[in-house]
Write a structure and sequence with these properties.
mainly alpha; Helicase, Ruva Protein, domain 3; Rossmann fold; Zinc Finger, Delta Prime, domain 3; 4 domains; 5-stranded parallel beta sheet; 52% helix
Length: 452
């Protein structure tokens, strides 16, 4: 056997180990027994070659992309991968045109696999609908986020959602053993072994992510290849210390365009939302140390101020905007302190998403009722004709009344009585709630209803 240090053992493969070891059949696929086991819906559909448009929702490394490729294999359809992170609707149109030609001239369907489909906005998601409905493509979307919140209702109504679970530690151990034994696609030609402690550590630290486990295993193998100097001596086993080192070196890297970029910004956002100061500062530091664009982080902090703090502390939005300007003015590294200050402020601020949810409800109402007429009394009346038509008739100028308030209807007739914004009991929203309750009493008094 050639020595482990021979460079061709690694150079002969251009693909990473995780890509080479990707399962190609249901028999090779590990995990997701709740979907693929005997008598389970998805497994039976795949084996029959009868899979319709669907969404795979699961954590990183759980097999979403692999499963989509397996679907294409079993259904004999062309597999067209697409990333919502790096590509746009223009690319979708190109794919659709090719799919139409393929169906017309070859009689072969197309699976359009959209990775990170939740990165698309509502309009971009809805662009898929005509092609899904007419059967030009079978859409398989992959997402790590809850589809109920991130995908449009129209898209969800046309796609079945399958929930993928993280792989177990036993699954990860099997993945690692396969990679070490496979001489064609894996590391079998190296004759490597892994001791039980190292295997247990790798299975635990992979946290259900097969790709992460294989990346660390590949890094460990490269380490042994680089450290071996005696070809005639036995190849040492992969130990827990080697795996620990491989994990640290592998995952300290920060890919600003890849999955970890989104994982870390998600961790920062969720730590701030959860009022965990230490977690918030750690993820902020991780991104800055990894080379993330500080202004990208600043934009996310502004979003958090509006989305998760809201009117519980109206100063949060001004402070985060000031932090963005401070960084722009000071640059790095001094300006990073302004981002840290804003992060701590947001993490310790009272939280409310009531404006966020209220706007979502209002947007839904606007989409469901896009053509409701503006009530005559609040219409603009710049001309005599408009005045004669009743525009502005009966409008009450609020500042002409005590407390600058007068009960008056501002919604279209069909939406009268709707309540979208319900302030919380936290921070400044407590004052807003009291004010709104007072206005409600004035409204009731104006129509002769008893106060509550």
């Amino acid at each position: 056997m050639p020595p482990v240090s021979e460079p061709t053992l690694f150079l002969r493969h251009s693909e990473p180990l995780a890509a080479r070891m990707r399962p190609r059949t249901l028999e090779e696929f590990l995990g997701q027994e709740q979907l693929l086991g005997p008598g389970k819906a998805l497994g039976e559909l795949i084996r029959r070659g009868d899979v319709a448009s669907c969404i795979f929702w699961g954590p990183p490394g759980s097999g979403k992309t692999t499963l989509a490729r397996i679907v294409a294999h079993y259904t004999a359809r062309h597999f067209e991968p697409f990333s919502a992170v790096t590509e746009g609707v223009a690319r979708v149109r190109e794919i659709i045109k090719a799919a139409e030609d393929r169906l017309k001239y070859e009689g072969r369907g197309t699976i359009l696999f959209c990775d990170e489909i939740h990165r698309f906005n509502r309009a971009q998601q809805d662009a898929f609908l005509p092609w899904v409905e007419n059967g030009i493509v079978t859409l398989i979307g992959a997402t790590t986020e809850n589809p109920s919140f991130e995908l449009t209702g129209a898209l969800l109504s046309r796609c079945r959602v399958f929930v993928l679970e993280p792989l177990t530690e036993d699954h990860i151990k099997t993945v690692v053993r396969r990679a070490l034994e496979d001489k064609d696609r894996g590391l079998g030609a190296l004759g490597l072994t892994i001791d039980d402690d190292a295997l247990a550590l790798l299975a635990r630290e992979a946290d259900g992510d097969a790709r992460r486990a294989l990346q660390a295993l590949e890094a460990a193998a490269e380490y042994l290849a680089g450290s071996s100097t005696a070809p005639d001596r036995p190849v040492p086993p992969i130990t827990a210390s080697i795996i620990s080192d491989a994990l640290q070196k592998r995952f300290a890297k920060y890919d600003k365009g890849g999955e970890e970029h989104y994982n870390l910004i998600s961790a920062l956002h969720k730590a701030v939302r959860g009022s965990d100061v230490e977690g918030s500062l750690y993820w902020l530091a991780r991104m800055l140390a990894g080379g993330e664009d500080p202004l990208y982080i600043a934009r996310r902090l502004v979003r958090i101020a509006a989305e998760d703090v809201g009117l519980a502390d109206p100063r949060a939005l001004s402070l985060t905007l000031a932090a963005k300007d401070a960084y722009h003015f000071l640059g790095s590294p001094e300006g990073e302190l302004a981002l840290a200050q804003a992060t701590v402020y947001l993490a310790t601020a009272p939280k409310s998403n009531r404006v966020y949810t209220a706007y979502g409800r209002a947007m839904q109402a606007a989409e469901e009722h896009p053509a409701e007429a503006v009530p005559l009394h609040i219409r603009n009346a710049p001309t005599k004709l408009m005045e004669e038509l009743g525009y502005g008739l009966g409008y009450k100028y609020a500042h002409a009344y005590d407390e600058a308030y007068v009960p008056q209807e501002y919604l279209p007739d069909l939406l009268r009585g709707q309540k979208w914004y319900e302030p919380s009991e936290f921070g400044f929203e407590k004052d807003i709630k009291q004010r709104m309750e007072w206005w409600e009493q004035l409204k009731k008094a104006a129509v002769g209803q008893p106060p509550t």
